[in-house]
Amino acid sequence: MAFGNIMDNRFIQNFMKYRYLLYELVKKSVKLEYRRSFLGVFWIFLSPLLYTIVLSIVFSTFLGKSVENYPVYLLCGRLAFDFFSGGSKAALRSLKKATIIKRIYVPKYIYPLASVLGKYVTFIMSLIVLALLVIVTGVVLTWHIFFVIIPFALLFFMTLGVGLTLATIVMFFRDVQHFWGVFTTLLMWGSALFYPVSVVPEKYQFIFDYNPLFQVIDMIRRSVIYGQAYDPFQVFYVLGVTIFFLTIGIILLYKYQDKFILYI
After folding, report:
1. Where would you find the membrane-spanning parts of this chain (predicted)?
2. 139-162: per-residue pLDDT in tens?
């Protein structure tokens, strides 16, 4: 009975009606990213691999042995950051390009959702490189590796929440896309992708405490590299940030969606 009531929900029925469109949009977003390139989707694997090799050579010179298993440390952070940055930017641009909504009714949330899902598919596929690097570098996995699924899930929903929020705001304030580009650059340097937190003066380390993306990256590193349990506070903090952005994103989208056709 309860399952039947859920399936009778208007939102669920609407989602099921347009699920094939969502599938096609996700497939299209993955294909478009690598179209006309000679190696195509192989760049999903080559890009993080080459990036890790180059930066490991460069930064290992400066950091020495201060970071345990630096290539895996670097790749854990880089993959999570690339998904967040790429997913939020793709969602931000998605509604501006959805000219079809001027002619027929399509649920507006489908476009930012498809953009984030498309990036998540790429992210999941690129984890194969991380798995190979874990094996090659001899990381000793523990049962804590199973808990990596929690930061992966939080990362997806946090990106979706931020993407939904930005997708609506940018329809009325186009400058936001440029500000977001600058902000994500700052976020990259404030998420300790290339360096350990210990190199930052202690009085500035509070930045990492308040940075939810760093908390996600730290949870992934603890599960994969160090075989440690992460602090439950990290989960609750990132979950709170995620719920905040999802709520804001959904409210803004449903309040202003009827005005989108005037700005496309």
Report:
1. 38-64, 70-92, 113-139, 145-172, 179-197, 235-254
2. 888 999 999 999 999 999 999 999
Tell me which DSSP letter residue 230 carries. P
Give which of 125, 86, 111 is closest to 28, Cα–Cα: 111
This prediction's pTM: 0.91
Give the residue-averaged pLDDT of 49-57.
85
Closest among 213, 175, 179 to 193, alpha carbons compared = 213
Residue pair 91/163 in contact (Cβ under 8 Å)? The answer is yes
Q: Are 158 and 150 in contact (CB under 8 A)?
A: no
Three-class DSSP category at 104: coil
DSSP 39: S
Residue pLDDT, tens place only, 170-197: 999 989 999 999 999 999 999 999 889 9
Segment 183-188 long-range contacts (CB within 8 Å, at least 24 positions apart): 184/85, 184/88, 184/89, 187/81, 187/85, 187/211, 187/213, 188/81, 188/85
